[in-house]
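Task 17 of the worksheet. Students: predict the tertiary structure of the chain below and write it out as structure tokens. Keep your answer in the requested format; marks are given for formatting as well as content.
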Amino acid sequence: MPRYLIVNADDFGLCHSVNRGIIECVERGIVTSASLMVRPPAAAEAAAYAKHNPRLSLGLHLDLGEWIFENGQWIQRCAVVPTDDACAVRNEIDRQLAAFRELTGQQPTHLDSHQHVHRREPVRSLAMARARELSIPLREFDSRIRYSGDFYGQTAEGRPLPHAISVAGLKKILKSLPDGITELGCHPGYAEDLHSVYRAERKTEVRTLCHPAILATLQELKIQLCRFDQLPRRI
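Model answer:
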């Protein structure tokens, strides 16, 4: 079987400097898809770019809060809605879907979430229901697509992991891809106006994703880049 790769940039719309890095990776690198955060002010800028660039498929990056690892545990730094309140989560998902449609004039091509909060209930079931209604993939819950989060410059506890986002590290990931379709998550960007625990790593991701050796490796391994909007709709 052939191998297909969707390279999806999370956090599109988070701020101008992240937008700038993602756009660079679309135009000079291997990013084929992005997930839009609709709440930040820079979302409009990101959506405007996507409207005029059909080579980029655009999904919704559900934003329900943010957590940091501190003193040996995960602590919630900010909350959009309580993630254990099914009614509040349902309403917020619908609000963000409506905002996505208003910003872009279209439906999302895929669905995922900031810090993978949709892995846990009740968010998981609610996000799965919306993905089914829209006939789009929900990250890690679509049997056609394997998700890889290996291209990330920190450990689960927030310690630096620079090799994972190096050219050599990405080559290793590409060489281990199985047959079929893989989504590779990434977080490229710059940090001038960014307030996040994941900052300096984003610039490194831009360099790696745009490095000529990566495209050469894809060609050598006969891995075909593709987008979410090129997948057949789910039935």
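Marker's comment: The first strand starts at residue 3 and ends at 12. The radius of gyration is 17 Å.
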